[in-house]
Specification:
By secondary structure, this protein is an alpha+beta fold. It has helices at residues 44-51, 55-63; strands at residues 7-10, 15-23, 26-33, 38-42.
Length: 75
């Protein structure tokens, strides 16, 4: 499998690019934020675990979208 082309998902708040990538540990879904120059590669289990979460989990994540380091608190 060759790494695929990016698919762009966007709205008025964010733009992300997603694509499957081949790694030595199998296929991952790469998600990148071109505006923030950040990316992550998630395995199938990590992706499935997103489906286990209630919607309010994501609301809590968005309360500090860039993590505690952006607010000056240690991890």
């Amino acid at each position: 499998m060759e790494d695929a082309e990016y698919i762009e998902l966007a709205n008025e708040f964010a733009v992300v690019h997603v694509r499957p990538i081949k790694t030595r540990n199998g296929v991952r879904l790469e998600i990148s934020s071109p505006k923030l120059s950040r990316r992550i590669a998630l395995c199938p289990l990590e992706l499935e675990s997103l489906t286990w979460q209630p919607t309010k989990t994501f609301s809590r994540l968005l309360a500090t979208p860039f993590g505690p380091e952006a607010e000056g608190t240690p991890e």
